[in-house]
Design goal:
alpha/beta, TIM Barrel, eight-stranded parallel β-barrel, 11 helices, 8 strands, about 15% strand, binds 2-phosphoglycolic acid
């Protein structure tokens, strides 16, 4: 059975004091792991070591919001896999739509980062998703196929369960517009089918997370869908009750599988 995840992407938010309060609340709200649902938070780079310390002994894991494709050397501003591993990071979000649209990350760049993460033992959470105009133009599947092709070409024999895919329709991120569960399911089913390019077991074992305005109030409906294996959560991951509510919805729904 494939793993399921609830991952919080803090984006460029937080402070030492705010993180402390948020993590204390999350630790109290998630005292033990439930139903094969992994939970993690992804703070800005500078907070990673302190967040790893704060969550130690709890079921909460830690991810970075990006990672370099390079190992070390003259790459000002970059952070490689080995440094993230050294400070206790488990996951790396790669190719978030904000990185693609605001910082010019290409599909090939995303693929290289995915390869680096896998080689160094981080779990890549590879983000894909279409713009609103692309969905309206009937291009959703074409866009997702192109984004997935770059990654699949870079990992010719992918190990089942080694990567996590996050489907985040760009028009649903931070907008309050969520894809309906049925709409998201249809796209997730397409993605799962497409992942068969990497083998049947790879397609079946890859967790495909939904992202885009996931909240405690809409999480259960999304997680009830057979090809939605969790959530990548932005805004709501900064609010204890919301993120714990999303985790509990995941544990309820995925416990039924
Ligand atoms: P949101 O962000 O939940 O605030 O829409 C999701 C994301 O960008 O990962």
């Amino acid at each position: 059975m494939r793993k399921t995840y609830v991952i919080g992407n803090w984006k460029m938010n937080g402070s030492l004091a705010a993180n402390k309060a948020l993590l204390a609340g999350l630790k109290a709200g998630v005292p033990a792991a439930k139903a094969n649902v992994a939970i993690a938070v992804c703070p800005p780079f500078v907070y990673l070591p302190s967040v790893v310390d704060a969550v130690s002994g709890s079921p909460i894991g830690v991810g970075s919001q990006d990672v370099s494709e390079y190992d070390k050397g003259a790459y000002t501003g970059e952070v490689p896999v080995a440094m993230l591993k050294e400070v206790g990071v488990t996951y790396a979000v790669i190719g978030h739509s904000e990185r693609r649209s605001l910082f010019g990350e290409t599909d090939e760049w995303v693929a290289k980062k995915t390869v680096a993460a896998l080689a160094g033992g981080l779990v890549p959470v590879v983000c894909i998703g279409e713009l609103e105009a692309e969905r309206e133009g009937g291009l959703t599947e074409k866009v997702l196929a192109t984004q997935l092709d770059a990654v699949l070409a870079a990992i010719p024999n992918p190990v089942p369960g080694s990567i996590v895919v996050a489907y985040e329709p760009v028009w649903a991120i931070g907008t309050g517009k969520t894809a309906t569960p049925e709409m998201a399911q249809e796209t997730h089913a397409f993605i799962r089918n497409y992942l068969k390019k990497g083998g049947e077991a790879f397609a079946q074992d890859t967790a495909i997370l939904y992202g885009g305005s996931v909240k405690a109030s809409n999480a259960a409906g999304l997680f009830a869908m057979p090809d939605i294996d969790g959530g990548l959560v932005g805004g709501a991951s900064l609010i204890v009750e919301e993120f714990v509510g999303i985790y509990n919805a995941a544990a309820d729904q995925f416990g039924k599988r």
